[in-house]
Amino acid sequence: MGLLNDKVVVVTGGGHGIGRAYCLGIARESGTAIVADIDESAAHGVAKAIQDSGGKALGTKLDVANFSSCQEMAKKTLEAYGKIDGLVNNAAIFMSVPAEKGSWQEITEEAWDRIMAVNVKGLWLCSRAVVPAMQQRKQGSVVNISSNMAFNGGLTMMHYVVSKAAVVGFSRVLARELGGDNIRVNTLAPGATMSEDKPTGEILKHYDRTASTRILKRIEQPEDLVGTALYLLSDLSAFVTGQTILVNGGAVLH
After folding, report:
1. Are 39 and 101 in contact (CB under 8 A)?
2. Residue 39's CB: how many other CB atoms inside 10 A?
3. Residue 209 domain-assigned?
4. How many domains does the chain have?
5. What backbone phi and psi angles, to 5 degrees, belong to 11?
6. pLDDT tens digits, one per residue of 135-180
7. How far apart are CA 91 and CA 248, in angstroms?
8. Which parts of the chain sit beneath pLDDT 50?
9. 65-74: pLDDT as tens digits
10. Which residues are tagged catalytic?
């Protein structure tokens, strides 16, 4: 028995970085991780790693900015397991799929639209595809991933910061709309997290600088976020909805 015993949880962007850590954590707690990623080989790789260690997982390709792709992912999940208990809207343009940087006047229209299509519209489309299965059973938990940059601003990345601020508003409205169906919706906002394997040079210096601004002065790791995600997905948070939890070692107090 684990914290997520027999719960089926979809993790978008589950093939890399923090999303991969969420999937491994779900499996460790006896849940079934649906590893959904635009990088199909990475999704299957994470699912196989979970299965090889005795856990339950399904890897599938997903483009969150495409509604038919979201619907196909939900259909595959329901065909395999008959239900969906949780959704972690984690897929975003930032690290694995890099975001263009520049001042607010220098960001291109194409970059702005691409960020919004994935980071904001993608949440909406995935929720539209997955939530009906939760509504049928009158239970479920949606965890939307924001960023502490939405609370302290972030130079050279206005489009990213705006998209992550939108996640908070999206979650609050969805929480109100789905409360009658006993579906909880919350936001998890990470700080700058070491989501790359063995970073060097300027990237490592950036993480070191960020660590120095925190109350807990160390680099944030993907595993630091898993406990809060599992809490929000589990029955431990059965009376928690519409909330935003920042997990950043005290870099931003909210």
Report:
1. no
2. 17
3. yes
4. 1
5. -120, 110
6. 999 999 999 999 999 998 877 789 999 999 999 999 999 999 999 9
7. 19
8. 96
9. 999 999 999 9
10. 160
